[in-house]
Amino acid sequence: MNPRDFLKPDQVDEFLRLTVRDGLCGTLSYLKNGSWRVWDIVARSVSESTFRVQVVSANLTELVIQKDLPVGLCIQHEHSKFIFETTVIEAPGDECPWDIGLEMPDKIEKLPRRAYEREPIPAGMTVRAFFWHRGHKNNSEQPPKEDYWQGTLYNLSAGGAMIRVEQEQRDFFSLGQLVGVQFTPMSYQKPLLLEGHVRHLQALNSENALLVGVEFLGLEASPEGREILHRLLEVVDAYEQLNLPPQNRSQNSKH
């Protein structure tokens, strides 16, 4: 297992000021009524005690954020992603309904962006995936026709997966649909259990199959989520090694 890369205390403040100076964007996630909510944000200001961000992708009727709510942030800069958890200390108000004041984080973890690139499942390996309905489709009270499906992993990254299912299941899926996902990346490992939402649907007509792209949710927002994230990092690294010619293995790594 590779050591985790955390910014030093003085680098935390320096990085947050950089996000404001450069207007860096990221995502903010939190758990609401048993489901993860994710919004795009942009850094706005930083002080000794407060990191202020602005939500740029929300329908205000759906943006329900209260003081003391734990949240996770992920901000991309150059070739890395920076993740941390913090707490809301100033909820959006009537005058600034998009602005959120966050407590300054104690630590920020740095992850290689390459780990979020999809790695194909190695040849000769079949990784079965099980996934199920986690909530109504976005903007709809209509549940899907089925609530449990099986497929095989097509590729994997630290941020999501493509799952291959039979094309006959196309009507069971829609973009934004919330799902739970479980798979065992290596035969000798424990299963991984994640939550996500459907972000991509692609028909493979020549194979009579459908690729369901799932983006994982909530991995930056809690210690438990980050443990899963680091398991994913290790799996993606292992898949990358297995996809290399034997003579080149162990010479490259995503992290």
Write the layout of secondary structure elements.
Layout: H1 9-21, E1 25-32, E2 35-46, E3 50-55, E4 70-77, E5 80-90, E6 99-103, E7 109-112, E8 119-120, E9 128-133, E10 148-156, E11 160-166, E12 178-183, E13 192-204, E14 209-217, H2 223-243
Antiparallel strand pairs: 1-2, 1-4, 2-3, 3-6, 4-5, 5-6, 5-7, 8-10, 9-10, 9-12, 10-11, 11-14, 12-13, 13-14
Please report the number of helical segments: 2
Low-confidence stretches: 136-141
CATH evolutionary superfamily of the largest domain = predicted glycosyltransferase like domains
On the 0 to 100 scale, the average pLDDT is 88
Order of helices and strands: HEEEEEEEEEEEEEEH
Rg is 19 Å
Domains counted in the coordinates: how many? 2
Tell me the total number of β-strands: 14
The CATH class assignment of the largest domain is: Mainly Beta
User: What structural class do the secondary elements suggest?
Assistant: mainly beta
What is this entry, summarized?
This protein has helices at residues 9-21, 223-243; strands at residues 25-32, 35-46, 50-55, 70-77, 80-90, 99-103, 109-112, 119-120, 128-133, 148-156, 160-166, 178-183, 192-204, 209-217. It is mainly beta.
Word description of this protein:
The protein has two domains: 105 residues, Pnp Oxidase, Chain A, CATH 2.30.110.10; 130 residues, predicted glycosyltransferase like domains (Thrombin, subunit H, Beta Barrel). The longest helix has 21 residues. A hairpin with an 8-residue loop joins strand 5 and strand 6. The strands form two sheets. A six-stranded antiparallel β-barrel has the order 1-2-3-6-5-4. A six-stranded antiparallel β-barrel has the order 9-10-11-14-13-12. It is mainly beta and 255 residues long. About 2% of the residues have low confidence. It is globular.
